[in-house]
Specification:
The chain has helices at residues 3-24, 30-48, 57-72, 76-89, 94-106, 110-123, 128-157. By secondary structure, the protein is mainly alpha-helical.
Length: 158
């Protein structure tokens, strides 16, 4: 048996157990668990066939790196395109969702940013990318609360 296939199969089985545990603890819906397991099964099928396409993680990582460079140069439209292309290659790449969320945030597209950060957490909750996304969501929620408190204060004093 191919080492890559064996490793992927082991990861899939481990993820099935994680999803089952989350469902039993009420931390995940059955639908979300099914979606996660289906994505893992699709990856296992691709590996069994000797291909990682369409979820080519290596290509996605290259696109994320290009997106990071564009983002750092404040070319947010270019960065957005790279991150979206990375997600086309690997739709379960949490880092791409995290960076795409940050790119949307820089473009003042707050609802899209929070959706992408939430998706990063959903697809790989234990990753560093998910931790970054959680931090960003936390900061946005703190800012929202501060703005609401300020508006409420203005209304009381108004």
């Amino acid at each position: 048996m191919d080492k890559h296939f064996a490793k992927t199969a082991k990861t899939v089985l481990k993820n099935v157990g994680k999803h089952a545990k989350r469902v039993m603890l009420g931390r995940e819906t059955l639908r979300d668990a099914f979606d996660g397991i289906s994505g893992d099964a699709d990856k296992l099928k691709r590996v069994a066939k000797g291909s990682t396409a369409p979820g080519d993680h290596k290509r996605a990582a290259q696109l994320v790196e290009k997106g990071r460079r564009a983002y750092n140069e404040k070319d947010f439209a270019g960065a957005e395109k790279y991150f979206q292309d990375a997600l086309t290659e690997d739709p379960r790449y949490a880092l791409a969702y995290t960076y795409l969320g940050s790119t949307y945030y820089q473009q003042h597209r707050l609802s899209e940013a929070t959706m992408m950060w939430s998706k990063a957490i959903e697809v790989d909750p234990n990753s560093d990318a998910a931790a970054k996304a959680e931090q960003r969501l936390g900061r946005v929620n703190m800012r929202k609360k501060a703005v609401i408190a300020e508006i409420e204060r203005d209304i009381r004093e108004g």
